[in-house]
Amino acid sequence: MPVGTTNISILIVDDDPITLNLLQKYLSGQGYHVRTCTDPETALTVLGEQVWDMVLLDWLLPSMTGLQLLQRLRQTYPPGVLPVMMITAREDTGDMVTALQAGANDYITKPLNLPVVVARIQAQLATVRSLVPRTADLLGGRYQLQEVLGEGGFGRTYLAQDWHRPGAPLCVVKKLLSIPAHEPEKLLRARHLFQREAQALETLGHHKHIPRLLAYFEQDGEFYLVEEFIPGPSLKEQFANGQPWRPKEVFSLLKHLLKTLKFIHRHLVIHRDIKPDNIIFSPVRKDYILIDFGAVREVLPQADPLVATLSIGTRGYAPLEQLMGYPEFSSDLYALGMVALQALTGLPPTELPWDHNTGELDCSTWLTPQTTHLLSILTGMTRYYPQDRYPSAAAVLKDLQKLEPVILSLIE
To answer: Which residues are catalytic, by number?
Structure first.
């Protein structure tokens, strides 16, 4: 029995019973803890149940290929944390290159030489152990920064690994950028925004369509916020080709995000920066996730609505009252309506036609029997004056659900 194998857990994903039986018996005999799965969806569930040290993955699987499953795994588990070895009958050099480029740590072809398989497992595990960073090299003693995801006026966002959690999963770390000492007002404003984002995520992050707050701390005079990493493409990426979405897809997007807004507004929070960059489609959850709560404003019952707040928002998506420092709940509805209109038309808000006399959008170009009802709702969300818009996300949802049978029957 190889030294140190008794605590090693290996998951084998293969729909060939002969291969599964052969590997399970041999590896168990070598002292490894082994579990087998025959389909990818079960494997994804099992991977979330405990810490695994290695995955042996076949290429040909039901419902999705082993390569697709590998790509799903790499959204959460980097190669240096969870080694994945492809074990397949596909001997083509191109397939091997494709798998290795997708994040496979090794590639073994069938028929299997079992002692060689064990030797290569041990080599990969030794490599992973050598890559574990020292605690002194980790931010907060636990976070290893990987790459910069983005940067704003006050903060920089990193993709990171959390080495204090099983499998060292990916997370998002936001760092407050250093601000010169001679700009105390700017520093105070930045800290206030950071603290407000942390408070919002703490309050709202238990919703399945909002990232969870994992930590918030200060180190060496700098502030850090850690939140759940949501893998998947943003709407900005999905809109990049400029192709209009089908009305049915826009309807679905709107319905899902309105439910999230209803939850946020019920907690007296205005997001203030709804835009395609801040909406992620999660393939795992098969739904849209609203991210980046750095600009949120909490609406306190005793607050004076006539006192201006910080002017925050993105041009084209933020309505005038928000840019002037007087955001309302309907300001978020306006921004979401603009996002939905961009999906429907393929045009960003700055390129949509306006009636210069009224300040209202002119969507007549896109008016068809299939879009009439949907455009009526979107127009009601994006009126120039707040008092002319829907008063709440719940009100929009009510109309959307009332018209759902009509809308979907015309769209089909």
So the answer is: 273
What's the pLDDT score for residue 297?
Answer: 59
Question: And the tokens for 257?
Answer: 């995000």
The β-bridge relationship of strands 84-88 and 54-57 is parallel
Q: Which CA distances in Å does 302 have to 49, 265, 307, 329?
A: 45, 16, 12, 16
Higher pLDDT, 293 or 269: 269
393-399-402-406 Cα dihedral, nearest 10 degrees: -120
Q: Return left, alpha or beta for 22; rule: phi > 0 is left, psi -120 to 50 is alpha, else beta.
A: alpha
CATH architecture label of 135-228: 2-Layer Sandwich (3.30)
How confident is the model over 253-278, as a mean pLDDT? 93
DSSP state of 103: T
Question: 264 burial class (0-12, 13-18, 19+ CB within 10 angstroms)?
Answer: buried
Choose among 56, 177, 200: nearest CA to 125: 56
Q: pLDDT for 39-73, tens place per residue? A: 998 998 888 777 788 999 999 998 889 999 999 88
| Residue corresponding to tokens 């992050």 | 205
Residue with tokens 């074990």: 87
SS3 271: coil
Question: DSSP character for 139?
Answer: B
**What six digits make up the tokens of 218?**
């200060």
- Alpha helices (runs of H) in 102-220, residue ranges in sequence order: 114-131, 184-204
Residue 247 CA neighbour count, 13 Å, CB half = 21
Let me know if 318 is exposed, middle or buried by CB neighbors in 10 A (0-12, 13-18, 19+).
buried
CATH 3.20.20.80 for the 9-131 domain, yes or no: no
Does domain 235-411 bear CATH number 2.40.30.170? no
Asked if 224 and 172 touch (Cβ cutoff 8 Å), the reply is no
Q: How far apart are CA 23 and CA 172, in angstroms?
A: 37
The secondary structure of residue 34, as a DSSP letter, is: E
Q: Check: CB of residue 67 under 8 Å from CB of residue 107.
A: no
Residue 29 is predicted with a pLDDT of 92
One-letter amino acid of 181: A
* Residue ranges of the chain that CATH labels 3.30.200.20: 135-228
pLDDT in tens, 138-191: 888 899 898 888 887 667 889 998 888 767 788 999 887 776 667 777 777 777
**201: closest CA among 230, 178, 232?**
230
Selection from 140, 160, 139 nearest residue 148 by Cα: 160
